[in-house]
Amino acid sequence: MDVARLVELNAAYARAIDNEQFEQWPELFADPCLYKVTTAENVAKGFESGIMYADSRAMLQDRVSALRKANIYERQRYRHIVGLPHVMGRDGTATDVETPFLIVRIMGDGTMTLFATGCYRDKVSADDTGALRFAERVVVCDGGRFDTLVAIPL
Amino acid sequence: MDIRHDASVHEPATTPHGPWPEDSLARVPYWVYQDRDNYDREMRRVFEGATWNFVCLEADIPNRGDYRTNQVGAMPVIVVRDADGTINCFENRCAHRGALIAIDDGGNVQNNFKCIYHAWSYDLAGNLKGIAFERGINGAGGMPKDFKRETHSPRKFRTTTLCGLVFATLSPDTPSIEDYLGGEILGRVRRVLNRPIRIMGRFTQPLPNNWKLYVENVKDTYHASLLHLFFATFRITRLTQAGGVLVSPDGAHHASYTIGSTDAPGAEAFREKDLRSERDDYKLADPSLLDPVEEFGDHIQLQILSIFPGVILQQIHNCLAVRQVVPRGTGRMDLLWTYFGFADDTPEMNRRRLKQQNLVGPAGFVSMEDGCVGGFVQRGVAAAGTKISVVEMGGSTAESQATRATEASVRGFWKAYRRHMGY
Known about the structure:
The structure holds two protein chains of two kinds.
Chain A: H1 3-18, E1 29-39, H2 40-45, E2 52-54, H3 57-70, E3 76-82, E4 86-91, E5 94-107, E6 112-126, E7 132-141
Parallel strand pairs in A: 1-7
Antiparallel strand pairs in A: 1-2, 3-5, 4-5, 5-6, 6-7
Chain B: E1 27-29, H1 36-47, E2 53-57, E3 66-72, E4 75-81, E5 87-91, E6 106-108, E7 112-114, E8 121-123, E9 128-130, E10 156-162, E11 165-169, H2 177-181, H3 183-192, E12 197-207, H4 211-219, H5 224-227, H6 229-233, E13 243-247, E14 254-259, H7 268-273, E15 300-307, E16 311-316, E17 319-327, E18 333-342, H8 347-356, H9 368-380, E19 388-390, H10 408-421
Antiparallel strand pairs in B: 1-19, 2-11, 3-4, 3-6, 4-5, 5-10, 7-8, 8-9, 10-11, 12-18, 13-14, 14-15, 15-16, 16-17, 17-18
Helix pairs in contact in B: 4-9
């Protein structure tokens, strides 16, 4: 798979979240899909839980709806710095890809903190139109600590 | 019963800041969330006192030599499965120079722990067994001949287990866990933990508030339908649903619960007040997120149970978790989440739990706000150490009530807290 196209997909992902265009975020996934936020420790121990878990595009849309309409949290934004994708291999029609990330959280008062680092473990495939989509995106955070709350997807 | 008439409570209360306001369970001075000396007193009198502290799950340490490290208040501890299957807990502090004996969060040791600093070693009960170069080298150096290893060990806890939960106490005065909890709360623990469990994940949520603000939040049945829009909109619970709160006789522990279906009489109370949390138009695009099945056979959809001082057992439909409160100074704490299911879960049940876990934790649709609201209080009262909080919904006593529009279990916390603190 063309690495440049993976870079583009990751850039679109980061841009949707960092520019608070959350409604575009589910569109980058296949349907059905898997999106999960977990930690390296849970992965190493074989623990399956995530703090976010979705297996359909609609469930991702519900995350966005809750973010917009339901949940209460202080104003905050993210800045994603996404590293270069490394193609691990091919699994049927999907390509296994790992991409490191770093997320800075910017609070309403201007405080910037290193919020999360880790690795996206993805299965990427092309949809009917040939566009790349995440069949799976497992967000494996390096640390096991999530400060205060995680409202916006990582 | 008001604390003033409760014979089990000490003589007229005195705190480092004078008498407790109005000597009432319905009043809480804000300095309790700020004062460093008071915090240190809590570590000694509450966590190291006559209380049972949750230290791990039995499922964390199934085999001989399996251990976990944890904290009891400010004290680092090791919890380990001994050769005979019993569980020991002792302070994670070498008797020599005070270094941590175990530095990982868990693992397995054969027969002993060895401090990395000078290789002093301890058996699985925390007894000092080996001292490197105890007799010196070539007759020179070494420990004095009259040094008694058996009088130099880290502090040891008594341990007990209940339905797979492991507790530890430093005090000889702490009653059995059954007497500590009382029959009602005990029944509510057994109701959920009725067979072997399976750990599904662990997450840590650092919170910007005093540990007691989180414990109060958990016990506060009044806020759930008001703060958490997700709960109310999807009718997982609302105050108008049938339910109530059980408070142990000493006030220390609680279990709140919601029963049955959604539209109970009284739903109008929400609409008339035009409360933010009542929006009927919000629907899930993928309802499989909330596809619960009855698994405890009693129509209790939701049960939140707290054991004093700092552990919570949660059942929200099929989403089960233990949450441990770890103090990290007056204005910080860690919340340690362990999500679990049962060993006999089918693949379908496993998937159902994974989806419902979206409700809780640091990113929980329902619990997310609990992460920040304690910080809002901590910041709000920054200049109000001499001012007082009002905790008077449902009266000023701390007994069980058949409604959740009450702060009875919060007052129960203060009843127990003041008894342990001598206030």
